[in-house]
Amino acid sequence: MPIRTSQKAALFGESVIREMTRLFFARGDKPGVNLAQGFPDFPAPFEMKEAACRAIRDDINQYAVTWGARSLRHAIADKTAHFYGDRPDPEREITVACGATEAMMAALMAVVDPGDEVVVFEPFYENYGPDAILSGALPRFVTLHEPDWSFDLAELTAAFNNKTRAIIINTPNNPTGKVFTREELTQIADLCQKWDVTAITDEIYEHMVYEGPHVRIADLPGMRERTITISGLSKTYSATGWRIG
Ligand SMILES: Cc1ncc(COP(=O)(O)O)c(C=O)c1O
């Protein structure tokens, strides 16, 4: 008899992105280009690989503290200060997770109760759908409109109410490539402050911005204390298999 699955598990299927990759490899030697999954095609930095080899040789292989190895949290704080000028407290404000994927799930579980509402821009990176289901949140979708994938401020405003606990912002955005402007992030920040909402931002593509600086909503006035900023090694450092976020 097969194992009976939960009602939650029955609500979603296999990742579309991973299914596409599976089909791609199943095509055998027929020509094809896999545009589905974000596998960077450059090697991970030499220094990072050397440090990993050194750590293995030095027997650094026991449990880290639950919120991540101290040295890594301090390195993340230094890197954040280098790029954005603000140094988060590595003891209180940084948590290491198994990739941005786990960080998003953990952030939603930490912030949202069943029945709360979470604003999600669509089209969205596919994981946010199951994340919302697993956290028990009701997603409120707000459309990013073609051709520039901007949102209508009236539509966004209408999505907020006193049940809204969080908004998920993914900038630069997958799948559209949209980069949210400072003005758009300011409009979102105003709504977050008006409705006491937490901004959960997926900034895994923060270093793939080709015009102007990357703008973090956490750096806008009044947002530092109400933003959970998520990023990871996968894309920038070409290390999707390391699962570090
Ligand atoms: C927007 C976005 N967030 C997160 C991830 C995955 O991040 P990680 O590998 O750190 O779990 C991806 C991968 O495609 C992505 O596109």
UniProtKB/TrEMBL annotation:
GO terms for molecular function: kynurenine-oxoglutarate transaminase activity; pyridoxal phosphate binding. Pfam families: Aminotran_1_2 (PF00155). SUPFAM superfamilies: PLP-dependent transferases. Keywords: Aminotransferase, Pyridoxal phosphate, Transferase. Its cofactor is pyridoxal 5'-phosphate. One of its GO terms (cellular component) is cytoplasm. Residues 32-245 form the Aminotransferase class I/classII large domain. It comes from the Bacteria. Its EC number is 2.6.1.-. Belongs to the class-I pyridoxal-phosphate-dependent aminotransferase family. This is Aminotransferase. It comes from Capsulimonas corticalis. The lineage of its organism: Bacteria, Bacillati, Armatimonadota, Armatimonadia, Capsulimonadales.
